[in-house]
Design goal:
The protein is an alpha/beta fold. Helices cover 33% and strands 26% of the residues. It has 4 helices and 7 strands; from the N terminus they run βββββαβααβα. The strands form 2 sheets. Strands 3-2-1-6-7 form a 5-stranded mixed β-sheet. It has a two-stranded antiparallel sheet with strand order 4-5.
């Protein structure tokens, strides 16, 4: 029997379900990343650090193209990918459906290793993270 996992995620939380043949979802795991809910100014990533301006006494972040919240989203995507890799290695699922906030979905896809990425049957670029289980079941039935 094909065991399908459903991952519903945004940059702050991920819920993982098993989907039965009748479309019902059973919770498997919940992951959260509190830093993704924090205010940008309250976060530190230990990234590339500050550099001094050559013309004065000012300083700025060395990597201005990436915000701190984006770095934390990437950290959380790596955490989810590691969880999925471990579960895949334990034969916990055969296929995945991922429903995630569009910007986070790309980060998550980038972090999946090849064997896990090959199990992704469907990707849904919608943020269903705040929906209850019954709503997610209904939304999946409309899509799958």
């Amino acid at each position: 029997m094909n065991k399908q996992w459903i991952v519903v995620a945004d940059a702050a939380q991920a819920r993982i379900f098993t989907r039965t043949n009748d479309g019902k979802l059973t919770p498997e795991n919940t992951l959260s990343h509190a830093q993704s809910r924090a205010h940008e100014g309250d976060l530190r990533t230990g990234g590339k650090g500050e550099v001094h301006d050559s013309g004065g006494s000012g300083r700025h972040q060395a990597d201005p193209q990436t915000t701190t919240s984006e770095k934390h989203a990437d950290i959380f995507a790596k955490q989810i990918a590691q969880t999925l890799k471990s579960a895949f290695n334990d034969n916990a699922f055969d296929s995945l459906v991922i429903a995630a906030d569009p910007s986070f979905l790309g980060l998550l896809r980038d972090q999946l290793d090849s064997p896990v990425a090959d199990t992704v049957a469907t990707s849904i670029d919608k943020n269903w993270a705040q929906h209850d289980t019954a709503d997610i079941e209904r939304l999946l039935d409309d899509r799958l």
